[in-house]
Design goal:
There is one protein chain. This protein folds into 4 domains: 85 residues, Baseplate protein-like domain - beta roll fold (Phage tail proteins - horseshoe like beta roll fold, Roll); 68 residues; 83 residues, Beta Barrel (Elongation Factor Tu (Ef-tu), domain 3), CATH 2.40.30; 147 residues, no CATH class. The strands form 5 sheets. Strands 1, 2, 3, 4, 5, 6, 7, 13, 14, 24, 25, 26 and 27 form a 13-stranded mixed beta sheet that branches. The chain has a 5-stranded mixed beta sheet with strand order 18-17-22-15-23. The chain has 475 residues and is mainly β. The radius of gyration is 34 Å and the shape is flat.
């Protein structure tokens, strides 16, 4: 039999036997549920701190989420409690900040120092990461910002029971032992092969990339005042009329007296309608940087042939389209496509087993599975999730380990693994040509003084001797 200590707020409680369920998942919110019986009103509030220890070790730490009270009898109460781990805290905070030429670990540590530290989050293991040329977060949750940083840097993140935020590659933590048998609950173990996200030909639709500097010319005709460019305009261009520079400014925002006007993302420049159209035969020369849509395709021909041989007919091609508008260069898009194929153009495999005796396993660890009789020959696998349940006083762990993608939820994590060749740049919740506005709060002490001048106007008292005159005004 195990012993447990449940603390919610300042209360030390016992949970109802058999009601405990815990799910520890890496890179996503971990949850738990249990029931508490009481003869008195426990007056739970959402957001109270929760700590559950089993046999002296922390089994779950987090916050109370949506408590439900029921009354099965005249006196007693049953509280059904849902719990969330500290992974929930970054979802409650907003970041609005931009970074230039910083490594991922510097950005993560800055988010901790300036935002999450006020909620008790501290730095865990955060090794040096890749360089990010530009990262702009426009009023998004810190959780979403961390997800994006993990996506572009081949990393994952998690907040443990001690409120330490860990951020790094898959091999950041290793299991305390190799798995060499699953005989403890052999009848419950299962191995699964499958990959619902399989593909061997990957299309990537990226964002808009900039062209090299372009020069386009037109001839005036004494009438035309609007001219169309070959590409949408990215940044402010320059213009000359027969070699003489003209002024050009943003349409609707710039100097209304400019000779010409342009707009970001537009394919038109227009002359000030107050000016005379460019004369017949005069050359209009525009120098600008344009924008074009990124679309790339990458194929794994060896895997296509293998798939075709297995099917016994057809091309063997399995295509998939992914869209990521944060990709700003074709080379990064090709690397992204290659990363997708590297992880999804393979069969996925997973192993699930139950244990009561194996201790020290934590979601997010890398583990070597060496059970040749089950088809696992010293395979390095990853533990994405562990479920814990109370079965008649016995606390049982259900562990899931994976090799490559499979048909479980963890395929979402594998889909993020890429190795960009270029420096990384992305803008979350903000367009390429938008400006991030950061609000700042200020406090100041003001000393106010006020002087009031009072004028008293006394009304005449009615009397028989008081006669109206032109200088006497009524009250």
């Amino acid at each position: 039999m195990t012993t447990s200590v449940l603390t919610i707020g300042a209360r030390t409680l016992d949970y109802v036997g058999g009601s405990l369920r815990i799910k520890h998942s890496y890179d996503r919110r971990c949850t738990a549920s249990l029931a508490v019986e009481s003869a008195t009103d426990l007056d739970f509030s959402e957001g109270e701190s929760v700590d559950l220890k089993i046999d002296g070790a922390t089994a779950f730490a987090g916050l109370l989420f949506k408590p439900v009270e029921t009354w099965p009898g005249a006196q007693n109460r049953i509280y059904k409690l849902d719990l969330v781990c500290f992974h929930h805290l970054p979802q409650q905070r907003i970041v609005s900040k931009s970074y230039q030429n910083d490594t991922v670990d510097v950005i993560v540590k800055d988010l901790i120092t300036n935002i999450l530290a006020s909620d008790g989050i501290t730095e865990g293991s955060i090794p040096v990461g890749v360089n990010v040329r530009e990262a702009v977060f426009a009023y998004i949750s810190v959780s979403r910002a961390l997800d994006k940083l993990a996506e572009v840097s081949d990393s994952h993140w998690h907040i443990n029971d001690d409120k330490e935020l860990n951020f790094g590659p898959m091999d950041l933590f290793t299991a305390p032992f190799d798995l060499t048998d699953i005989d403890e609950f052999a009848g419950k173990a299962e191995s699964k092969i499958g990959n619902r996200d399989y593909r061997n030909k990957q299309f990537i639709r990226g964002g808009k990339s900039e062209t090299v500097t372009r020069v386009e010319t037109w001839l005036g005709d004494d009438e035309q005042q609007t001219f169309v460019t070959g590409f949408p305009i990215s940044t402010e261009p320059s213009i000359e009329i027969d070699g003489v520079p003209g002024t050009i400014d943003l349409r609707g925002l710039g100097d209304p007296n400019s000779d010409w006007f342009w707009a970001a993302g537009s394919t038109e420049i227009s002359q000030n309608t107050a000016d005379t159209p460019v004369g017949d035969g005069l050359t209009i020369e525009l120098t600008y940087i344009g924008l074009f849509d990124i679309v790339v395709v990458s194929s794994d021909f060896q895997e296509i042939a293998r798939r075709g041989a297995i099917q016994g007919f057809g091309s063997g091609i399995v295509e998939h389209v992914a869209t990521d508008t944060t990709l700003k260069t074709a080379s990064v898009a090709f690397q992204y496509a290659a990363g997708k194929l590297g992880k999804f153009a393979v069969e996925g495999r997973s192993l699930r087993w139950e244990t009561e005796l194996q201790t020290g396993l934590v979601a997010g660890q890398q583990i070597v599975v060496d059970i040749p009789t089950r088809g696992f020959d010293a395979l390095t696998m990853f533990i994405p999730e562990i479920e814990v349940s109370d079965r008649g006083g016995r606390v049982i762990q259900t562990v899931r380990a994976i090799e490559g993608p499979d048909d479980g939820d963890w395929a979402l994590w594998w889909g993020r693994r890429l190795s960009p060749a270029d420096t990384i740049a992305f803008r979350e919740n903000i367009g390429q040509n938008e400006t991030l506005i950061i609000l700042a709060s200020f406090e100041a002490d003001w000393e106010w003084e006020e002087a009031v001048s009072t004028i008293t106007h006394a009304c005449p008292i009615p009397a028989t001797s008081l006669n109206p005159v032109v200088t006497l005004n009524p009250c």
